[in-house]
Amino acid sequence: MSEELLINISPMESRVAVLDNGILGEIYIERHHKLGLVGNIYLGTVVRVLPGMQAAFVDIGQSRTAFLHVNDMQREPRAAADNKNKIVDVSTKEESVNTGNADILDTADSLAVTPPVVSAQSTEVVPVSKTLIQHRLHESQRILVQVTKDQLGSKGARLTTNISLPSRYLVYLPSSDHIGISQRIDGEEERTRLKTELTSLMQTVNLKGGLIARTAAERVPVDKLEEDIYYLLQLWRTICARRQEINHHQSSELIYQELSLPLRSIRDLVHAGTEKVIIDNTQIYEQVRYFAKEFVPFVYDRIVHYTAEQSLFDVHRVEDDLRDALKRRVDLKSGGYLIIDQTEAMTTIDVNTGSFVGGRSLEDTVYKTNLEATHAIARQLRLRNLGGIIILDFIDMLEQQHKDDVLESLQSQLTQDYAKTKITQVSELGLVEMTRKRTRESLGQQLCEPCSTCQGRGFVKTAETVCFEIFREIMRCARTYNSPKKFTVVAHAAVIDLLLTSESDTVADLEYLLGRVITFDVENLYTQEQYDIVLD
């Protein structure tokens, strides 16, 4: 599979598109006036501790206080010394540019009280009181935290005290004590080599903390790993020095800011299969080349400066794909289609056969449509960056083998997804429930806002419904106020037209019943649901 990265820079925003065989697979957008927070490290101030939720709100200098759960804090006390530098399978999506370095280790999302901690090599139980957040934090306390999730809607950013610093091949965990290997590295021999070499390097440089070998570290020579370790060690020293420097300040302050989107994309997205990195801005092109020469030299000669007059995204049809990614309906090549609806609680994806009738039987038609839908669903999840709970409503299948094939196909397609996913079996209602790790806003949330007319409902009252509301309001006003001799209805043109045509008999009956004249006035600035009754 060939892959290209397109980096489009404008005065307002930076955009990175990932093309798989010429088809848009992922899009990352960073507005220059609203940079993402994921990966940033702050010296925050605890504003409020919530024992009932085992969480705290922390001021990091943003518009909303951030959220820190006890499960995202360092464990106390640390594991026994004989557990240090143990090899750990890390099911991580650390390559993803949208998550920065936040998703290195899985953290529980449960808000339950933390259970007692039991050592892996001992039956000694750490007292619960030492794990409760009210015994670890207090209001006005200064605390070093890192953002793992951006602000989403009305929710503040999500924090952790388990700091993680990524480089090209490694992730440094100052508060940990183990060596982890990405599960994407399959070969046991290679995993053992990385474990041995990293253990030796940590002892050589006297590195305190833990390391994770990223997927990009596979078959990387030891000298490159050593360079990464020295870089991460110096970066951590700089962060510690910065913390000491501002520790006496009263306000919460940024200590370390993640790289810009173009540089993050080079660090996290390029790999051996990346054929080209095309950039349409001279300044960013030079920055990326310098960064790649220092940290990702294998991609240096693949970086191309795009200078043509036509927009880079227009040439590769990215703009068209972006517009399609904001629609509810996704058409399949066979004639079937998906309907994607995103709500606050979950996202639902409905599969329909549409005009596809090419199967030998109904079961065969349904089976082929569902198989095709798995490819489209996996692509849309990445492209739209849909996260949280996702309900897939495949067309009902009778044969168990067909259900198994569809699930297997979906699992296979999701292996290309950098975000962590979990899928259940087909339920009795024919639904598939899944979750996808969410760290930033979806594409729709990032580019769109609720409709000012329908307030996000997706529909408005019909003109007929509004007419009947107006009739009821006129009768209510007539009972309440005895003095008016005339009622003037101010409403949208479509409502007034209906009142003067189809509902004209009702208007005449109402005038006779109330003994008052009813006139009408069109207000073009009103939505179809808006109206006023003026008493004269």
Describe the structure.
The chain has 536 residues and is of the alpha+beta class. It is 29% helix and 26% strand. It is built from twelve helices and 27 strands. The strands form six sheets. Strands 4, 5, 6, 10, 11 and 16 form a six-stranded antiparallel β-sheet that branches. Strands 19-20-21-22-24-23 form a six-stranded mixed β-sheet, with helices on one face. Strands 3-2-1-17-18 form a five-stranded mixed β-sheet, sandwiched between helices. Strand 21, helix 7 (362-384) and strand 22 (388-393) form a beta-alpha-beta unit. Helix 1 packs across helix 2 and helix 7 packs parallel to helix 8. The protein is globular. The chain starts with a strand and ends with a strand.
Q: How is this structure best summarized?
A:
The protein has 536 residues and is of the alpha+beta class.
Number of helices: 12
Q: So what's the overall shape? A: globular
Relative strand content: 25-35%
Mean pLDDT: 84
Termini distance?
73 Å
The amount of helix comes to 25-40%
How many β-strands, per DSSP? 27
User: What is the makeup of the main sheet?
Assistant: 6 strands, antiparallel
Rg measurement, Å: 29 Å
Structural class: alpha+beta
List unreliable stretches of 5+ residues.
Answer: 77-88, 91-126
